[in-house]
Amino acid sequence: MIFIDACLKKKTPYTPVWMMRQAGRYLSEYMQVRASAGDFLSLCRDYKKASEVSLQPVDILGVDAAIIFSDILVVPLEMGLELKFEKGEGPIFPKPIQTEEDLENLDIQKGVRNLSYVYDALKLTREKLDPSKALIGFCGSPWTIATYMIEGGGSKNYAKCKKILYQNPEFLHKILTKLTLALKLYVEEQIKAGANAIQIFDSWASALEKEAFFEFSFNYMLEISNYIKKKYPHIPVILFPKGISGFLDEINGNFDVFGVDWSTPLNLAKEKLASKYTLQGNMEPCRLYDKNSIKEGVEKILDIMKDTSHIFNLGHGILPDIPVGNAKYFIKLVQEKSSK
Amino acid sequence: MIFIDACLKKKTPYTPVWMMRQAGRYLSEYMQVRASAGDFLSLCRDYKKASEVSLQPVDILGVDAAIIFSDILVVPLEMGLELKFEKGEGPIFPKPIQTEEDLENLDIQKGVRNLSYVYDALKLTREKLDPSKALIGFCGSPWTIATYMIEGGGSKNYAKCKKILYQNPEFLHKILTKLTLALKLYVEEQIKAGANAIQIFDSWASALEKEAFFEFSFNYMLEISNYIKKKYPHIPVILFPKGISGFLDEINGNFDVFGVDWSTPLNLAKEKLASKYTLQGNMEPCRLYDKNSIKEGVEKILDIMKDTSHIFNLGHGILPDIPVGNAKYFIKLVQEKSSK
């Protein structure tokens, strides 16, 4: 699997490429399956359909890795925290975590068990997937998941999280510790079910000051990564903390790939991190609106990364209104232009 | 005015301090004036009331500078682009800019003339303000204002702007050039009316890749700054591009103060920029929820900046639900702890 080789800094015949949110709304085939499943959570919970949409971008676009279709918030959901996806509103936890008792009511064992639909989807997908293609499992970072559980949904200023962080940091650490424990077991089950690599999404890393980021987010991600790397050293771990280009000097620890968001200059990330990690990223997703911009972006990025370990990706998820033809052009262009 | 001295890198008896959005909803006195004015735009357009709320934080909190109460979007509004502030929705331009004709319909001269309520508010505020306190005028950066005019309001992915940027960059440059011309005249009128310094807010700087940031945003801010510094060399210009901690190496040009947002590590900004510019910022606004966190934040920042030119501020606007007592405590603490 050239994706896995690139993660582990081995030479590859070309630069492997995939896209965050590649199993998504820009594909009419995805929309059909999604419609047949009903709502978003029903699609996550139907392992056959989840597997089907996970495989679509491999078949349609020829990406080098499939990522299992799911959502980072199924973990608190299955631990017992009610979750709704309201149309146009994003995820809502109607009863956010406010007290120690709210936290105690969440059941790690039950959660990890209830998430069997994710493991079933991974198993089926790994069976159907070409052996040359990698299957990526994933989870959210404890911090990012916690922000939704505390705020009750998406947030602009993370005021509730920050109040806890400043006024009762021990409670925040308790929430994060419990989530970390659940996530270790969750990604371990994903690996047992066939995941070849694990990506940890820290979408709201940028909600924290530098010191707070390392204390409340990065350290917990590393704890998950350390757990995986100790038990499954051949499984690459990809960390993707978004919006922290000012903190790169202090990124360190036992993982394999650092995901670079598009707002971080790639040569800065290369200078700071490429000696230790494979870099993944980081094309600006809106470039996919326009073929000339795709070409310019691909050439620029391949040139920066020509002498170092690299997985090509967008620097954020693909947008729903990108023409499929442009996505295909992008994937093919990366694979062709990077061929040695 | 110790605020102006600090801008110009002169020694000051203590570190001057103010807060972005200091004339705002956390003050009951502001809420009263706002209620009497009707809606938000009516408050902007009533120069007496705008002046009254601009002065409140000086009287109530003892900040070292007043910033004139207004909004960055009054400029396109008065140039002829209809603007609404819907409750809970933020600003809406019902007829966003889509064509060259839409752009041609905007009238620079009329806009600069119609904005007389801002100049009147500045005159009145400067008259009433203690001579030791500075009065800050401001505008949005051409890029940030353009994002609203093109998207029709706030945006998550700036997809419409990006489509223009990639498919028709000349048109985006035309929009930015026209806005820059209007903004030069607008801030010049603000200076004539009594503004002692000008801050340019580039709130959506982080929506751009590095090269695009310099081409489509920073260069236009510099054009405004160059214009001001040439005609009014004693007037400090403050640039505040948000979320670009990865681009600091390349920040250069003729301005006085660089505003550091809270997500940018202050010692990184100091290392890269303090030899050239006074730094303004950058306490995390949620620290104001808690007095211990205020103290910790103030001491940390004063320690980093103890040997270099500094204006204390939050790294983003003050939040509406901050207790006024905490804001007072913050301002006093900065002034006391930094006294030499």
Distance between the termini of chain A: 17 Å
Shape of chain A: globular
Beta-strand segment tally of chain A: 9
Architecture of chain A in CATH? Alpha-Beta Barrel
For this structure, what is the CATH class of chain A? Alpha Beta
Largest sheet geometry of chain A: 7 strands, parallel
Gyration radius over CA of chain A: 19 Å
Helix/strand-derived category of chain A reads alpha/beta
Q: Mean of the pLDDT scores of chain A?
A: 97
Strand order in the largest sheet of chain A: 1-4-5-6-7-8-9
Low-confidence stretches of chain A: none
Biggest interface, chains and residues, is: A-B, 30 and 30 residues
Number of helices in the DSSP assignment of chain A: 15
Summary, kept brief:
Chains A, B: Substrate binds at residues 21-25, 71, 148, 203, 316. 2 copies of one chain form a homodimer. Chain A has 340 residues and is α/β, with parallel strands linked by helices.
Features:
9 strands, two-stranded antiparallel ribbon, lyase (chains A, B), TIM Barrel, homodimer, 340 residues, 49% helix, alpha/beta, uroporphyrinogen decarboxylase activity (chains A, B), 7-stranded parallel beta sheet
What does this structure look like?
Two copies of one chain form a homodimer. Chain A is α/β, with parallel strands linked by helices and 340 residues long. Chain A has helices spanning 2-7, 28-37, 40-45, 47-61, 74-78, 100-104, 108-114, 116-128, 142-151, 159-167, 169-192, 210-231, 266-273, 291-304, 324-337; strands at 65-67, 84-86, 90-92, 134-140, 197-202, 237-241, 257-260, 278-283, 310-314. Chain A has one domain: TIM Barrel. The first copy, chain A, contains 15 helices and nine strands. In chain A, the strands form two sheets. Chain A has a seven-stranded parallel beta sheet. In chain A, strand 2 (84-86) and strand 3 form a beta hairpin. In chain A, helix 2 packs antiparallel against helix 4, helix 4 runs parallel beside helix 8 and helix 10 packs across helix 11 (169-192). The longest helix of chain A is centred in the middle third of the chain and has 24 residues, at 169-192. The radius of gyration of chain A is 19 Å and the shape is globular. Chain A binds chain B through residues 157-159, 162-163, 165-167, 206, 209-210, 243, 245-247, 262-265, 268, 284-287, 289-290, 292-293, 319, 321, and chain B through 157-159, 162-163, 165-167, 206, 209-210, 243, 245-247, 262-265, 268, 284-287, 289-290, 292-293, 319, 321. Chains A, B: One of its GO terms (cellular component) is cytosol. Chains A, B: Belongs to the uroporphyrinogen decarboxylase family. Chains A, B: It catalyses: uroporphyrinogen III + 4 H(+) = coproporphyrinogen III + 4 CO2. Chains A, B: This is Uroporphyrinogen decarboxylase.
